[in-house]
Predict the structure of non-specific serine/threonine protein kinase.
Amino acid sequence: MSKDQPRDRQFKVLKFVGKGSYGSVFLVQRLADGQTYALKEMDVRSMSQAEREDSANEIRLLASVSHPNVISYNEAFLDGNRLCIIMEYAGDGDIAKLIKSERRVKEGALDQECVCPMGHQPTAQG
């Protein structure tokens, strides 16, 4: 997918986000209104029948869930031999990345929640 290529549904690729076992994810912008989304792109030619069914189930599941802690689904479409799923973009990455980051913070320094109950609340004046 080239960086400046508009998609079948008028999306412009802004940047490559990552690659998983089924395909690649891009940050895209819908040209009609400037909204940004994550576009998950999978080559259906290289998928087995079971993988195609898994992808269809993923789309059904995403479309059926509406919760503030779950990435929201926008749409899905075929662009040639590519299945494209348009979802909410999570700029902070996935949950695994967030957990690893939080662990590093807690292992590297005392957390304010741990310090404050033992002493006084730090202020700008000292």
Remarks:
- The CA atoms of residues 100 and 106 lie 10 Å apart.
- Residues 49-64 form the longest helix (16 residues).
- The helical segments are 49-64, 95-108, 112-115.
